[in-house]
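Severity: low
Component: inverse-folding endpoint
Summary: output formatting inconsistent between runs
Steps to reproduce: submit the following structure tokens with default settings.
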């Protein structure tokens, strides 16, 4: 595509331009399937557009956290193209995807990272016959296509839409204008075998008279249906899976099926971007005395798509950590999978049902339902939990027979009440509801009941984690300063962010000590590891530094004495530390470092850089270490930035490069409020998702006093 061919906004909306660009990307790279993900305000990847794949197939992947173990999230976090060449590599690197999509295909995921922000990513898939390795020219085409999408997003004054369901984009195939439909139909009807066409959703869009005769159904009955729905003898997940294989792998698929009473048919599926052409050939019996084997009768089975979806949801439930994670997973993945709109998740607590999460309900309804007794007759939740048996209500009339007041409370029209129990112990209740009446099939009841057991285990783990996390946070707050002292002529801002998930106490610490009317000591450090032992050592180090600093010791001497203390404590943990003595009267700062990342200095003129100071060994390595000091100017308007390595620990990026980027961000931040400046630094450093380590930042700005 030349520059003049690139999609531009013009009179069309940004969303239309993005859809066109996605279709061009799929067509230009030779891919068969494409998906566009954008990051929403909650740092969740939303699938906003897709092509070459039915919407049903993408249901498990329409909302993904940036931390999810999937190629597109890895590509965004690591700012690189992720290539998966075949199913073996997929099973090794992304086992959950391999379980849900057990088909042959190659996949690429590339980030859409611009100057303004990280926008999201693109996923592309190629047919099964694609080479395992990506060629250099193909990699260039993928990257160029991603750059075009980034330019659309960066240059537009519009904001892209984030629809609840992805837009389905069509990649049109080229047809020869001279070929007429009548001629094609006449050709097909003259053949001895049957022919039919499926769209990508699996519905029959065309069927010849021969095909209808072989299948034993009139054409008007077959059109618009899926074969495994309209033909009882094809009601087997195996046949639906053949169709799914053809759609995803874009490779021909052939199988044989038994059409009662005594006919065997071979189906040959030939897929492309517009649908699937199916050739139906009758198999002749082998000899006159031997009848073809009659397949055993099968019990009705769940659709293949639902089975794969259950595998995906089960795997996702095992990865939830907090109660909030669990509620979001149920709301964004389980509810759409069953066409439901409402969720109430309750825990059993002291004989009452305490609502811990909801979706699709007004606040006043939740307030009314929260804290109901287990023996309430207002809803079936208590009875369901007591009996351990789920209850399904297809409409308000059905529920009103036993619980007359229940339908009037929420306005919902159908409900599934799922007891959450573990080895007979009640954990809570999960209510899935619908805005319209809904008749639950046996398949839906079975799957929802199975999921309830997994939700119960996930909820039990999440509640334990949340309790431990609260205790950890309280301990962390007790170890860090509650407030920083005020010093005339010095503005201060500090921020501590614990690493994403975890119940261990972080080892980061900071402090600001007032030494005199115009002098102060700023300290920042990081104890090795995340544990109670690290937290205890952190408290001892802070106390030692405070004691030595208030006696008037020089920065290098403060570190030397603290280093000796660690030897006396006989700790196996090491500590990095940066000590800065700020003298506002002299307009200078004296710094000493024990293996800590160097500070940043933003000059009053606006430029910023990394201060070149000599880093001594970490505290606790050698008791005989003598630390040195470095002096730097700190005139009014200058900003000194102290931070821990969590701020520059970016996967796949050199630390020196990350520090330079941090300095550039500090330089571009302007002279506004320090809190806003600090927000910008943290936001830029964590733009690609969850940080791997604790982050602590302490900013100091000298201010002219009049």
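Observed output (run 2 of 3):
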């Amino acid at each position: 595509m030349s520059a003049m061919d690139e999609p531009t906004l013009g009179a069309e909306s940004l969303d239309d331009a993005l859809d066109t660009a996605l279709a061009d990307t799929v067509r230009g790279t030779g891919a068969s399937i494409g998906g566009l993900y954008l990051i929403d305000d909650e740092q969740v990847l939303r699938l906003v557009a897709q092509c070459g794949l039915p919407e049903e197939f993408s249901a498990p992947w329409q909302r993904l956290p940036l931390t999810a173990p999937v190629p597109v999230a890895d590509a965004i976090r690591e700012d690189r193209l992720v290539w998966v060449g075949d199913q073996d590599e997929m099973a090794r690197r992304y086992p959950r995807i391999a379980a849900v999509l057990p088909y042959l295909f190659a996949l690429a995921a590339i980030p859409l990272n611009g100057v303004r922000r990280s926008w999201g990513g693109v996923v592309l898939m190629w047919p099964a016959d694609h080479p395992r390795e990506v060629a250099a020219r193909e990699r260039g085409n993928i990257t160029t296509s991603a750059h075009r999408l980034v330019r659309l997003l960066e240059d537009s004054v519009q904001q892209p839409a984030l629809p609840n369901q992805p837009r389905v984009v069509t990649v049109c195939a080229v047809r020869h204008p001279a070929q007429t439909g009548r001629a094609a139909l006449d050709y097909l009807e003259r053949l001895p075998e049957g022919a039919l066409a499926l769209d990508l959703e699996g519905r029959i869009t065309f069927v010849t008279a021969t095909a209808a005769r072989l299948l034993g159904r009139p054409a008007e009955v077959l059109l618009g249906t899926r074969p495994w729905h309209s033909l009882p003898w094809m009601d087997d997940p195996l046949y639906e899976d053949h169709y799914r294989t053809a759609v995803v792998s874009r490779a021909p698929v052939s199988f044989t099926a038994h059409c009662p009473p005594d006919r065997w048919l071979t189906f040959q599926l030939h897929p492309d971007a517009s649908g699937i052409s199916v050739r139906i050939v009758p198999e002749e019996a082998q000899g006159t005395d031997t009848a073809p084997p009659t397949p055993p009768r099968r019990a009705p089975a769940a659709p293949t798509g639902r089975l794969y979806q259950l595998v995906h949801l089960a795997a996702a439930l095992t990865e939830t950590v907090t109660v909030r994670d669990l509620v979001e997973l149920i709301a964004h993945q389980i509810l759409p999978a069953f066409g439901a709109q409402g969720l109430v998740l309750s825990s059993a607590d002291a004989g009452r049902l305490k609502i811990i999460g909801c979706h699709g309900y007004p606040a006043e309804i939740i307030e009314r339902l929260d804290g109901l007794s287990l023996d309430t007759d207002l809803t079936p939740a208590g009875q369901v939990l007591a009996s351990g048996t789920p209850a399904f209500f297809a409409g308000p009339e059905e529920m009103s027979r036993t619980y007359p007041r229940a339908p009037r409370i929420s306005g919902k029209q159908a409900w599934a009440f799922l007891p959450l129990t573990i080895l007979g112990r009640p954990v809570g209740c999960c209510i899935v509801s619908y805005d319209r009446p809904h008749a639950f099939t046996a398949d839906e009841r079975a799957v929802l009941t199975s999921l309830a057991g997994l939700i119960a285990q996930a909820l039990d783990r999440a509640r334990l984690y949340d309790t431990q996390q609260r205790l950890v946070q309280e301990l962390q707050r007790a170890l860090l300063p509650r407030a920083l002292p005020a010093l005339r002529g010095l503005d201060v801002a500090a921020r501590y962010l614990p690493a994403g998930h975890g119940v261990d106490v972080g080892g980061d610490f900071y402090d600001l000590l007032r030494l005199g009317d115009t002098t102060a000591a700023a300290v920042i450090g990081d104890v090795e590891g995340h544990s109670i032992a690290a937290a205890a050592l952190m408290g001892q180090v802070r106390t030692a530094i405070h004691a030595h600093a208030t006696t008037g010791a020089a920065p290098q001497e403060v570190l030397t004495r603290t280093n000796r203390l660690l030897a006396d404590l006989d700790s196996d943990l090491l500590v990095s530390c940066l000590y800065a003595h700020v003298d506002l009267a002299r307009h200078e700062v004296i710094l000493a470092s024990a293996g800590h990342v160097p500070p940043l200095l933003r000059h009053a003129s606006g430029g910023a850089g990394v201060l070149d100071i000599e880093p001594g060994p970490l505290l606790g390595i050698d008791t005989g270490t003598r630390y040195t000091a470095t002096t730097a100017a700190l005139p009014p308007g200058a900003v000194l930035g102290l931070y821990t390595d969590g701020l520059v620990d970016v996967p796949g990026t050199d630390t020196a490069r990350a520090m330079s980027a941090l300095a550039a961000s500090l330089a571009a931040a302007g002279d506004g409020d320090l809190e806003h400046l600090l927000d910008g630094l943290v936001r830029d450093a964590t733009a690609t998702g969850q940080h791997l380590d604790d982050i602590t930042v302490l900013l100091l700005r000298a201010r002219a006093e009049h």
